[in-house]
Specification:
284 residues, alpha/beta, Rossmann fold, six-stranded parallel beta sheet, five-stranded parallel beta sheet, 8 helices, 13 strands, HAD_sf
Length: 284
């Protein structure tokens, strides 16, 4: 299939859908403000018996993500549960007691090891790296960390990436994330473990939580993912075997100008396998 289906509303896509796995950043908010229509759409879907699990590459635990959502005006009633790449990274740290961790990321992400028996150490003494982002994502890029990554590779350190995103929206700007450093490290020959979309563990965790709320195992044919990234949301949904609604107002907004005029070859070049449907922004 190379044609694109443009949907006007979520309601036309969720007949027979028991569970929605929705991205947060770019779909529900842009880092500075929430999108009221998107929140209303998810809340309305829930009120009609559907389950909404928010899945995010945020390098923080779910409770920290929830606090941010509340600050941005996203009501708890918008969703049933949150699964973050930070949660999965914390599991890795917890399963490696006694090993020294070099933490690379901004101070706001320190909840990644809060409450864990984790020993932090300089790069020269660490057993592995946990990367939650850049120290200063307002001014830096992954290239600023090339020297550090070369030293890490020399020591053959594993880098655990707590946010596979390359970039994310912050207002009307694109900000580099941990995924940019992780990809650089991989290009340099370093070993990387990715937690978060498009990798399978975050979807398995989300499906488990959805099943608990529905009271039965979830049929993947009755699941709809929503996201704004080809690399993480669309690829992750496709590889996990679930449909995807693609929101075009997010990080790829400029690329999607004139999307409805694309020929089949351009569609394949942009998406690979197209999503179930596209919508500029999520609404009921």
């Amino acid at each position: 299939m190379t044609t694109l289906h443009f949907a006007e509303s979520l309601r036309e896509l969720v007949g027979g859908v028991d569970v929605v796995l929705s991205d947060i950043w770019g779909v529900v908010h842009n880092g500075l403000e929430s999108f009221p229509e998107a929140c209303e759409a998810l809340h309305t879907y829930r009120s009609r018996g559907g389950t909404v699990i928010l899945i995010t590459n945020a390098p923080r635990p779910a409770d920290s993500v929830q606090r941010q959502l509340r600050k941005l005006g996203v009501a708890d009633e918008t969703y049933d549960a949150i699964v973050s790449s930070g949660d999965l990274t914390r599991l890795y740290v917890a399963e490696h007691p006694g090993r020294k961790m070099f933490w690379l990321g901004p101070e706001r992400d320190n909840s990644i090891y809060r409450g864990l028996d984790a020993t932090t150490a300089p790069l020269e003494e660490a057993d592995y790296i946990v990367c939650t982002g850049l120290y200063d994502d307002e001014t830096e890029t992954a290239e600023d960390y090339r020297g550090m990554m070369l030293k890490a590779r020399e020591r053959k350190l594993t880098l655990v990436c707590a946010n596979p995103d390359i970039v994310v929206e912050r207002g009307d700007r694109l900000i580099y994330c941990a995924g940019a450093i992780a990809e650089l490290y991989r290009e340099l020959g370093g070993e990387v473990i990715f937690y978060g979309k498009p990798h399978r563990p975050i979807y398995e965790r989300a499906m488990m939580l959805a099943g608990e709320r529905q009271g039965h195992m979830i049929d993947r044919k009755k699941v709809l993912a929503i996201g704004d990234s080809v690399r993480t949301d669309l690829t992750g949904a496709r590889e996990f075997g679930i449909d995807c609604l693609f929101v075009t107002r997010g990080i790829h907004a400029e690329e999607f100008e004139g999307l409805d005029q694309l020929d089949p070859n351009s569609v394949m070049e942009l998406f690979g396998h197209p999503p179930k449907a596209l919508m500029r922004e999520l609404k009921w």
